[in-house]
Amino acid sequence: MTSFLTGIAASDGIAIAKAYRLETPDLTVEKRTVADPEAETTRFEQALEQAKSELEAIRSRTAETIGHEQAAIFEAHLLVLNDPELIGPIKETIRTAEVNAEFALEETSSMFVSMFESMDDAYMKERAADIRDVAKRVLSRLLGAENPNLSLISQEMIVVAKDLTPSDTVQLNPEFVKGFITDVGGRTSHSAILARTLEIPAVTGAKSAMATVRNGDTVIVDGLAGEVLVNPEESEIARYEAKQQEHLQQKTEWSKLVDEATVTADGRHVELAANIGNPTDVQGVIANGGEGIGLYRTEFLYMGRDSFPTEEEQLEAYSAVLKGMKDKPTVVRTLDIGGDKELSYLDMPAELNPFLGVRAIRLSFEREELFRTQLRALLRASVHGNLKIMFPMIATLGEFRKAKAILEEERERLTASGIEVKDDIEVGIMVEIPSTAVMADTFAKEVDFFSIGTNDLIQYTLAADRMNERVSYLYQPYNPAVLRLVKTVIDAAHKEGKWAGMCGEMAGDEVAVPILLGLGLDEFSMNASSILKIRSLLRNLSQEEMAKQMDAILNLGTAEEVKETVQRLLK
After folding, report:
1. Which of 116, 220, 462, 537 has its CA 20 to 30 A from that of 99?
2. Is 503 annotated as catalytic?
3. Is 190 labeled as catalytic in the residue annotation?
4. Was domain 256-570 assigned CATH 3.20.20.60?
5. C-alpha closest to that of 16 among 207, 237, 164
6. Bridge partners of residue 307, in order along the sequence
7. DSSP-derived 3-state class of residue 14
8. Picking from 67-71, 228-232, 435-439, which range would have the lowest pLDDT averaged per residue?
9. CA 10 to CA 196: how far, in whole Å?
10. Distances (CA, A) of 139 to 29, 94, 116
11. Where are the domains of the chain?
């Protein structure tokens, strides 16, 4: 009899295959007294080094096969293994209590996990997950237990797990792993983001998958609807095979739009751009018909290394992107470190709430020479393409003026030295703080453009950490409060003859796109793999007709009502 499970549609597509249950090894720890604490400490250090080597290899492989942005996940794990505040107490416990390394590791790491999980801050909660993941890796080495190697799967399977760590997910070979299901997680979890990059259908947050699915069961994963069928009837398999073919045919149709402009049904052109993390991502932008780059996350140049990139290294990376885009608009965001992104070689004091602390432009002002080095590299690279510079996390007009003044100082120094710099570089800001959206009319008189960063704007507006499952119901892209802020920004830009884009996840959301079109958004920037799907959607929408619906939509009371209304309009 068929079992039905529902979860979150984390990655598009339909997969039908046998189940592979990801069983974790027995890592049960017993407390033992050791006769030689120093020898036990050495054993722990050896296990620690083995775990570091494994993570370094995973990080390198991820950077090569998927991208530096995804590889940065493992930078956080390596930071944990190099953190003296975690490693020191473990060694101290071994020496003073004269206990085995396994017990000292589990006791100390569990204490840190519990402490971080009890905090309200998103950054601290993510550190708890990192500690749990790396502690398990070191413990496996101490116990001589083999972790499952998903890269060894050599026939078509669907992976079923309680959760997939980033290091699990990057081992998935799309040739054989046709999809995955997890009991926990959401659409913004690391595993979901990696699944979309790998184009593997996935359903997360299915809750009872591990309790329901056995090894070898036939499983259907519907990553379009967030549904899972276990041991389906032949008629159900046939129905989903037809749906699978329909989706593949749809992708083939979308591929025909690679060289087409993005024009709505009533003839309005909008720009579909891509978010990237490193120069190699440009190939994917071009292959998917991207009309520009709406967000180049330069912080990934700084990650996965042990020192700051030099001006020459940055110049090379920025020039490669600009040349690769061949004069298509390229928006480069200056360094956005802090919050959930750290550098192992940058000494940053601990903060109770890093997402509201010294991050992004605030860090650039604190470490001004780093900021100036980046700006010089960008200005020197400008001659190779259509560069636009964007400052992140701007909260006040004074911050924008200060950042732009530093940029102009570096421009003057370069030109005085005889170095060529393009003279028509647009300078804009990310709108991700509600105060900035409210003051958009004032900002619009001085900036050249806005790019709305909805990932942060939504969670700041609704005071809801998007990584906290207990309040995930409040992470609402369609909430009328969020939509009204977006309208305020777009209207303010247009009143001053400026353009407004969006580089958050919302820009590639099929329910949000018709609303954003109706509000007059000029540029939609998203994961490159979403561009053709959204281009196809926009070709069937009338901007004029959607604009007529905006007053009614913005006056709805809830996000659910907005979603239902848009879906009804699209039918």
Report:
1. 116
2. yes
3. yes
4. yes
5. 237
6. none
7. strand
8. 67-71
9. 8
10. 9, 14, 20
11. 3-23+149-253, 37-143, 256-570
